[in-house]
Design a protein that fits this description.
By secondary structure, this protein is an alpha/beta fold. The protein is 28% helix and 17% strand.
Length: 174
């Protein structure tokens, strides 16, 4: 994504991820956004006038509605969230609860970034699968600015995937 931004004139764009990825098309600044100190770093960056916008892609693994699809004869990952309990279903194992909780921290961080971007007049966009339970989490649903976002959906399979995969984009700009 950062390489695409740079091709369009955003020469100072940066990517942030928990780890550096071998073979990535851009350099990645390693931050663990489940940690307060790393979140504070991003909030400080957002205050800088050179920052024009943010594109977020929070992890969707724990929020995937595909976990609810039964695959006969296969050991499929079990659901961690549901429409009734989008923040995490009752009775999760310790490991699954840790995974869902870490994702919830990131979802709350996304909501805080949205609010700060709106307050500072900066562009904000987030993406996740259209049917992701991310869109139903408390942190996202109760964010005041989320009610004013514009949404677009597209087929990500158009980018080389082999199956239909609807992706939703949410932005504070057209």
């Amino acid at each position: 994504m950062t390489a695409s931004f740079k091709r369009h004139g955003f020469t100072n764009s940066v990517a942030v991820g928990k780890t550096k990825t071998a073979g990535a098309l851009t350099s990645i600044i390693p931050l663990d956004l489940t940690k307060d100190e790393d979140q504070k770093t991003v909030f400080q960056w957002l205050q800088h006038p050179a920052v024009k916008g943010v594109f977020l892609a929070p992890p969707c693994g724990t929020a995937s509605a595909a976990r609810n699809i039964e695959l006969p004869g296969e050991d499929a990952p079990r659901p961690l969230r549901s429409f009734e309990e989008p923040d995490g279903i009752s009775g999760l194992t310790v490991l699954d609860l840790q995974r869902a909780s870490a994702a919830n921290i990131l979802y709350a961080f996304c909501a805080e970034v949205l609010e700060l971007c709106c307050k500072l007049g900066k562009l904000f966009m987030s993406e996740n699968p259209r049917n992701s339970l991310f869109w139903l989490t408390t942190a996202w649903r109760e964010t005041p600015s989320a009610k004013h976002l514009l949404f677009a959906e597209h087929q990500a399979c158009g980018y080389g995937g082999k199956r239909p995969k609807w992706t939703r984009l949410a932005a504070n700009f057209q």
